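note to self: dont lose this again. the chain is below, predicted strucutre after it. 405 aa total, dont forget to put it in the shared folder this time
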Amino acid sequence: MTAPTSSRSTERLTGVHALTDPADEPSGDVEPTGSVPSGSGGVQAPCTTGSGLPVIGSLHDAEGREPGCSVGHSAGPSEGDAEGAGEWASTQPSKKGMGLVRLTLDRGVKTTAIGQLYGLDFEIEGAGYEVKLFFDHYNRRLKVIDYEARDYGAMVHHISWLAEANEFDKVFLKAERGDWQRFLPWGYQLEGILKYYFRGEDAYVMSRFRSNERLHSPHLMEETTLIESVMQRPRAYTPPPLPEGYRLVRATPEDIPALVSIYRSVFQTYPSPLTHPDYILATMERHILYRAVKNAEGSIVSAASAEVDEKHSNAEMTDCATNPSERGRGLMFHLLRALEQDLAERGIMTAYTLARAMSAGMNVVFYRLGYEFCGRLINNCDIYGCFEDMNIWVHPLSPVRMGES
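---
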């Protein structure tokens, strides 16, 4: 493969966002914990229970509340551990290789990051293409954020070389209607459609796998059965009103300590620096809307966010967490509806989420909110030390402005 003519770098401590099952369990899209240390070349096994069976959430619980996910991992503090047992609470080194990260950004361009690097943006140019990439160290994948191409072959070869150089075993991008098929001859496959993603036009999620382990999911039949069960439920759902004294608020910098506290208490691990106050402040000032529910005492008991893409007029619904003692009260439903209203007021056309395919509760919540199931991303993100499949759910916020996608 030929070397590019130039490259541009923008480094940031960031990552892909995860999404908690509003009723019970943390999960991710964007997209979680225990990644293979840099340079190991290893691949995690899919998540299973101790019996070797896939982890699948139950569609009902004994009290008929919002369904949750029956994953065999605690979402909150360990018993007897008031501070939680997350990666930020442990005094032992992790196995994720986060302390010293080496990345190959291009031919002759390498970098070593000391400290917790979740990922890094880098822009490349070659004869006939320009690409903005995200080197997702945490999830062992290369994300194409944006691209312009005249020579698709040269661009694809360059991307493949970078994935191999960094031992990333998944590459994925969002192609437009007019060119998604041009990636098929190069080993890419269509995993799903993010409807209305490009200002009302569909995005085609194309993925290229570099290992059999990353390509094959042993739980597809169980996940398909789960979705079929979700689709058989009635769409109509009226959540209970907020409890007396509870209120929805737009989170502000003054709320950051409380947000950090709830995220640290709910998540044992997380694939972005969500538990760091500086990260929340930086994203709050840039492109992420944070919403919260406060109880009668003024404490935050539930939170969620929307990561806004102004250029393409869409937003990812993510970073959802509810205090375990407050679950089953419909708080997350109210939060997501409020975020949708915030987005609509800003003229954002589309909301979407990536929901864990093994979490019944989260898929039910977005189904009840009117989202449309649009595909599944195989072994997309690293959760609890193994890769999980993610379901795509999409909801247009401005139906009058939608094209004939």
